[in-house]
Amino acid sequence: MRLLENVEKIEEWATKTFSDEPFTKLIGMVLTGAALFYKAEVGRNPKVKSYEDALVYISTCASVGYGDIFAVTPAGKLIGSAVMTVGPAMANAAFLGGRLAREHERADAEETQKKILSALEKILVALEKKS
């Protein structure tokens, strides 16, 4: 029972964290992940010589999931695993648009439809009076 409650809390946190402004959050994850990966791997991984190398690794993990750079430290592997787990979903959400943006667009469309309906009803009343 306790495990189920924890899973539900994690799902709730992930929904709140990764649902709105997904592109900004994706960029934040990639830049932060690259900094952490660089710190974990530089001097220990011959393929990670610069922040840009780490950036390539993390951005690749967040999209296609493979490349020519691999983590060699436990911390680097943990960072890579985390990014590979949530990165593709975040990238997908980033390019589909945020939930808030879609809700705002839907609300605008509803308001426009209400205005159109109101105008049509007024026209109908005016036409019925002329008949």
Write the layout of secondary structure elements.
Blueprint (H helix, E strand, L loop, with lengths): L1 H18 L2 H20 L9 H11 L12 H23 L2 H32 L1
Helix pairs in contact: 2-3, 2-4, 3-4
Describe this structure in words.
By secondary structure, this protein is an all-alpha fold. The protein folds into 2 domains: 2-97, Helix Hairpins; 99-131. The protein is 79% helix and 0% strand. It contains 5 helices and no strands. The protein has helices at residues 2-19, 22-41, 51-61, 74-96, 99-130. Helix 2 (22-41) packs across helix 3 and helix 3 (51-61) packs across helix 4 (74-96). The chain is elongated, with a radius of gyration of 24 Å. The N and C termini lie far apart (70 Å).
Summarize it.
With 131 residues, the chain is mainly α. It has helices at residues 2-19, 22-41, 51-61, 74-96, 99-130.
Number of domains: 2
Average of per-residue pLDDT values: 86
CATH topology of the largest domain: Helix Hairpins
Estimate the global geometry from the Cα principal axes: elongated
CATH top-level class of the largest domain: Mainly Alpha
- Radius of gyration, in Å, reads 24 Å
Helix content: over 70%
Structural class: mainly alpha
> So how many helices?
5
Note the beta-strand portion.
Answer: under 5%
Q: What is the level-2 CATH architecture name of the largest domain?
A: Orthogonal Bundle
> How many strands?
0
Low-confidence regions: none
Order of helices and strands: HHHHH
Distance between the termini: 70 Å
Give a short account of the largest sheet: none
Characterize the quaternary organization of these chains.
single chain
